Amino acid sequence: MRTIVMTGGTSGFGELTARQILATPDTRLLLGTRGHAPTGAEPIPLDLTRLADVRAFADAVRERLGPDKIDALVLNAGINPPDGDGRTDDGFETAFGVNHLAHYLLLRLLLPLLAENAVVSLTTSGTHDPAEGTMIPPPRHASAALLAHPDRDPARDAQPRTAAGRAYSSSKLCNILTARALALQPAARARNLTVLAYDPGPTPGTGLLRSAPPMARFVWRTFGAVLRRLVRRFNSKEAAGGNLAAIALGTVRPPAGRYYAAVRRDALTWLEPSELARDEEARDALWRDSAPLVGLPA
Asked: Do the beta carbons of residue 95 and residue 168 sit within 8 Å?
């Protein structure tokens, strides 16, 4: 029996991923959720804006597993707030708190429960890379202290939407840096983990912009198929969800030395992330400096 633990599997392409996992024989899916879950999944309450909830979720997973281990950990949930002024219950900027810190904590708590040769996937975004030329401003840095508390950043963007976009892209940069740092941890090496960052690409019709203005949400959800035909770089939900399911199920493995899986024109490709995402000092500092923010030793 294969056991998969997942966040972000109740809507958008993540729900398609969850359904494909559930359709696979001898596969068990433990799914963190605040609402409904696909039939067959084992829902466990999880609110990623509260680190206490993350700890309770990890405890519940440990109890549900019993003597079993986790064969794939799919950290897919994400949020793109409308401005940079929102804060989690723990006082952190919302995009950074949900997209990075909550998953960083969950990853570290569940690391001892991962099986030999397990897969770990963190969902990132091409917005982290200035070379992608997206409409969202790219990150300037990966400082955990400043991303957690952007009001302390002297270079913070004054325009709320710009600040929000940069907070989102920065949190997605952190997902890649976290994947790279995890792969170097002794426990990950001892278990021969496959660790990667997954970029679904721009995928109209998903719920990522649920916090955006009403008109933007309407266009994104209603005209997703039209946008995909007009803009060739856009992907379908089926491709984004199917490729993530293939990674979680182990039917797709990264080529040697690759860790950044990106869907482009519905096809899974293996790319180099941005220069900042490849920075070793930024990688090590983020892993180290995120620990005290979530109450863990570095």
From this structure: yes
Which DSSP string do the residues of 194-224 spell out, in sequence order? Answer: EEEEEE----TTSSTTTTS-HHHHHHHHHSH
Quick one: which of 173, 132, 120 has its CA closest to 282? 173
Q: How far is CA 112 from CA 67, 195, 278, in A?
A: 12, 15, 26
Contact criterion met (CB below 8 Å) for 123 and 75: yes
Give the separation between CA 295 and CA 163, rounded to whole angstroms.
Answer: 27
> Which top CATH class is 2-293?
alpha beta
pLDDT in tens, 230-263: 445 689 999 999 999 999 999 999 999 999 999 9
Model pLDDT for residues 130-166, shown as the tens digit of each residue = 999 999 999 999 999 999 999 999 999 999 999 999 9
Selection from 227, 295, 232 nearest residue 266 by Cα: 232
